[in-house]
Structure formats: structure tokens, C-alpha cells
Amino acid sequence: MEQAIFQKQIAPFIFFNGVKSILYPKNLRNIQEIRIRIQRPIMLLETENEWFLQRDGTFKRIFGRPYIPSLEEVYKILQALAQNSIYAYHEELKQGFITIPGGHRVGVVGSVVVNGGEINRMHTFTGLNFRFGREVKGCCTEILPHVLEEGHVLNALIVSPPGVGKTTLLRDLSRQLSNGVSQLQFRGVKVGVVDERYELSGSLLGQDGFDLGIRTDIIKGCPKAEGLKMLLRTMSPQVIITDEMGSEEDFLGIIDCMNAGVKIIASCHGYSMCEVHRRKNLHQCIQERIFDKIFILSSRNGPGTLEEVYDVRTFQQLLVSV
Amino acid sequence: MMIKFLGVLFIIMSMGFIGTSISSRYRFRMSEIDDLIESFQIFFDEITHLNQKIPHLMKKLSERPGRGNLLFQTVHQELNQSPYMDFEQAWEYALWEARSKTHLHPEDLDVLKMVPMFLKISDRESHGKNREYLINRLKEQEKKAWNVRLENEKLVKVGYILLGATVVILLY
């Protein structure tokens, strides 16, 4: 799948003066990212390995004779991604990314113009990071019985390092909770998704790239705290799903939702329960038992490996992956 | 006598026609600049308020009547042929084509060279300023074209008629 995505959607954007055609490595399995930085080799990242784009258009796992893109080339790639219309991505660029067809996200770094303490615009783009958005239907099968209890959805927090599959898992959870799961005799519920960076929905110009379920309402591009309130006021969801919680406002928004009787499934960056405890907002959430269960993921046996499950209500560790 | 009279009339009318044709380039230059002003007003409105993307915008502008829009037609064709082409490249090619296919002067085309630079900036405020700047520069060029037209259009027309009359006198 990655090969097809790479050749159809990514490779056309990264043709340089010296590279006439790019050859995709045959034994590449789980492509995570493509990183393009000025004056640095172009890197393709697997879960474990790194590949370098060579001047002859091949990828090698050794440094070799890498192709080094210039500032102008990085800009041209971005121009091509934006269909020569960088202005149309102004709001997204202010947040440091653009979304391309297929729901893939391209992170952008460069110089930022700040006006009155707020980011006004970005210019002189120096690096791009292609992150592949995936839809793995059924990837939440292992986690789903833990999220459901007597036909009800629990408040859940999914913790994992970046690139392990939190977003993919949330996508599948949204789809399954929304559509219903016959094996678990669970009828679908109304799901609200706050998709601040268009990652969950893979939305591009109003069209969703991924299936988040038939009973799902998605609010996109909106700060999480505001999005939670808006969904609560307008769409009467039974479950709200959101990605990458972090700030105090996000957690205050979650508390509002819980006071309204809405269940929350959220994710955040982290490696272990110890790390979760070290973060003030998350620690407070555990102390106040805002989430019923916490899931720790890793990439030990491939992306989305369920390592540990904690029941916060009883302070019990339910599952430890061996 | 009648044949001579018709001959004289033919020579003078032909020279008058040639003079009118040659002098029309002053008029065409003005109308082309006028087309460009209108098109760039639409261009900036669409990118500022509607966030329209370049391929769609070029298609829309290329469908507008007027020779000034030849630039947009060329860019539209180029981008259609190779969708990953840089706008700057396509625009430069269109300006190069315009030198031979329109009545725009090199100094008018120099003003238009800055258009790709405007697209490198994403915020609306800058687009507003760029719009004002570009349209003012084009209006200046239009004013210059008007002055050149005033100075030369009649002169060329009358000059050619006089040339015709001189030819007649010499032949007579």
C-alpha cells in the first residue's frame, strides 16, 4: 500500500534536477515518514530503519552518495504540493503543516513572521516531513473489549510515542463505535470527533479521506477545547474522540464533556505510565479519575502493540504484554 | 481621368488603411493593459476571499475575452500539460510568449514579472498590498500607453495618408 501511495502521491513531488526517477526499495515494509531538509540527505523512515535517497534515484540504507536538496527545491516541492497556491494553506501553514490528497500530512518548518505575539505567516521553508495517514480497519479489535463495559463506552486515554499508531487506532475506534460491533453486541453510538489538524479525518478541501463511521460528526481545524464545547452544544454526541491532548484547556474541555455525561476517548504522547505521571495535567487527570482506562502502546511488535492497560478506577494493571 | 482619380483614391485609402492598422497597436496596448487590470482584480479577489487555487483560477481567467488574457491562457495550458510545474516557470514562459503575441511593451511585461513573488506570501494583508501595488503599476503603464497613443496615433495615421499623397504627386 505504501509503495502505491509513495509512487502516485509522493514521488511526483520530489523530482529534483539531478534525480530523474525515484526507485522505491522493494524490501521496504512499513514506511512512516519521508524527511526532506535543505542541505541534508532525503530520508525515508521505516519503523526501525532509515533509507537515504541517492543521486541515482535509489534508496540505500547506507549514507552513500546522497542527494542534497537546496532551499529552492524544498520550496518547489511545497509549491507543487500546494498546487502553486501556498496562500490557500495559510491557516494550516500557521500551524506548521499542510494536508495532501489521501489524508497524508506534510509537516513544514521554516522562518515564522510573528505579529503581536501571534504567528502571522511562514516563509523560507527549510524542511518537510511527509507523514503517511493510514486506515487500518480492525486495528482496534484488541483494545475494543477494554473500551466497552456492559455495552457502555468507557473514558479512555491512549498513550504512545509518536509514529506508533495512536491516530490510526483512534480512527478505527471511531469507526467501530459509530457503526457498532456485532461480535460484542454493541450498537453504534453518536460519535463526535475534534480533528484539530485534519489528521483523524484526513480531510482535504472539505472531503474526508478516511471513514470515521456512519454516526460520526467531525469538527475540523478547531482548537480542541473549543471544538469539544461546540460539539457538546450542537451535536449531542455520546462519545467524543480527540487526538493529542496536552494543554490545560484541553483537559478543562474534557471535564466539561464528562460533566455533560459524554464519554471521552483521547490520546497523548508518552512512553510509559511513569512518564504520564510526571506530566502535571495528566497526573491530575489520573488523580481525579477522569479516565477509566489508560492504554500504553509501543511499536515493539509492529505499530500499535498494546503494552499495558490500566484501570484507573481500581488502580489495577489489567494487561502487561510479554 | 476617371481611372486616374480612382488610382489616386486607391493609393491614399490604402496608405490610410496601413496607417490605421499600424497606429492601432497603441490602442490595442491600452486595451490589453485594461484587460490585465480587470483580470488581476479578479485574481486577487479570488485568492484573498475565496482561497481559489491557481489551476482553477488560471482556467477561469483564460476563459475571459480580451487579448490581455493570453498570459493566463498560456499558464493554464502549461500547468495542464505538467501539473507539477512551478507557477514561476509557467509565468515566465507566458511572458516570453506575450512579447510576440500581444502588443504589450517590454516595460509592461517587466511589471508583471513580480506576480510569482506575490504567490510566495500567504497572508491576506500582504495580498491586499500586492494587489494595490500591481494594479497601480499597471494603471501607470496604462497612462503611459495613453500618452504614447495621444502622441503617435494621429501622427502615424496622418503620416501615412501624407505619404500616400506624396506618392501620388510623385507619380503624377
Molecular structure report:
The complex is a heterodimer of chains A (322) and B (172). With 322 residues, chain A is an alpha/beta fold. Chain A is 25% helix and 30% strand. Chain A contains nine helices and 19 strands. In chain A, the strands form four sheets. Chain A has an eight-stranded mixed β-sheet with strand order 14-13-15-16-10-17-18-19, sandwiched between helices. A seven-stranded antiparallel β-sheet of chain A has the order 4-3-2-1-7-6-5. Chain A has a two-stranded antiparallel ribbon with strand order 8-9. In chain A, helix 6 packs parallel to helix 7 (248-259). The longest helix of chain A has 14 residues, at 166-179. The chains are: A alpha/beta (322), B mainly alpha (172). The interface between A and B is medium-sized, with 21 and 19 residues.
Rg estimate of chain A, integer Å? 21 Å
Distance between the termini of chain B: 12 Å
Order of helices and strands of chain A: HEEEEHHEEEHEEEHEEEEHEHEHHEEE
Total strands of chain B: the figure is 0
Counting DSSP H or I runs of 4 or more residues, the number of helices of chain A is 9
Output the number of helix runs of chain B.
Answer: 7
List the helices and strands and how they pair.
The complex is a heterodimer of chains A (322) and B (172).
Chain A: H1 2-10, E1 33-37, E2 43-45, E3 50-53, E4 59-60, H2 71-81, H3 90-94, E5 97-100, E6 104-115, E7 118-131, H4 144-147, E8 148-149, E9 152-153, E10 156-160, H5 166-179, E11 180-181, E12 186-187, E13 191-195, E14 216-220, H6 224-234, E15 239-242, H7 248-259, E16 263-269, H8 273-278, H9 280-287, E17 293-298, E18 305-311, E19 316-320
Parallel strand pairs in A: 10-16, 10-17, 13-14, 13-15, 15-16
Antiparallel strand pairs in A: 1-2, 1-7, 2-3, 3-4, 5-6, 6-7, 8-9, 11-12, 17-18, 18-19
Helix pairs in contact in A: 6-7
Chain B: H1 2-49, H2 54-62, H3 70-81, H4 87-101, H5 106-112, H6 115-119, H7 124-171
